[in-house]
Amino acid sequence: MQINDPVAMAEMEAAFARYEAALVSNDVDTLDDLFWDDARTIRYGGGENLYGIAEIRAFRSARPAQGLARTLGRTVITTFGRDFATASTVFTREGAPGRSGRQQQSWVRFANGWKVVAAHVSVIPDPIA
After folding, report:
1. Where are the alpha helices (DSSP H) in the chain?
2. Amino acid 97: pLDDT
3. Which of 2, 18, 19, 23 has the fewest C-beta atoms lying within 10 Å of its C-beta?
């Protein structure tokens, strides 16, 4: 298995950038498109455990659209072969001083593109503060 195949890495970096742009602009349609449309998709959030794409979609459509801008750091994308990848990043938000967010996603390439199959988001006290 090739780790960080250049073609797979370029595709994943583009998919991750597309996800980030959709997240901070609250582009729910694109966010939905980037998650696997399946009952087995999981998203653990800061205050919710979402099982299946229906729960994820309901959360996204009800979430406030303000205060989503963030600054990323220490982003690591790793591809395993041509069809599986992980993306991990930390983030801060201007409206949450002293807090550090963490996001980790598992991505799989399907016939219709790269999709998040599992995600975890949490916020902790900033370890540097």
Report:
1. 6-24, 28-34, 53-62
2. 84
3. 2
Give CA–CA dist 126/113, Å, rounded: 35
The proportion of the chain whose per-residue pLDDT surpasses 70, expressed as a percent, equals 99
For the chain, strand residue ranges (E) read 42-44, 49-51, 71-80, 84-92, 99-110, 113-125
Question: Which pTM value belongs to this model?
Answer: 0.93
CB atoms within 10 A of CB 7: 10
Give the C-alpha separation, 24 to 98, whole Å.
20
Cα torsion 120, 42, 52, 10 to 10°: value is 90
- The confidence score (pLDDT) of residue 129 equals 59
Instruction: DSSP letter for 97, please.
Output: T
Please say whether the beta carbons of 4 and 106 come within 8 A: no
Under 8 Å CB-to-CB from 30, ≥6 apart: which residues?
A: 18, 19, 21, 22
Rg (CA), the chain: 15
Enter the DSSP assignment of 81. T
Q: Is the pLDDT of residue 128 over 80?
A: no
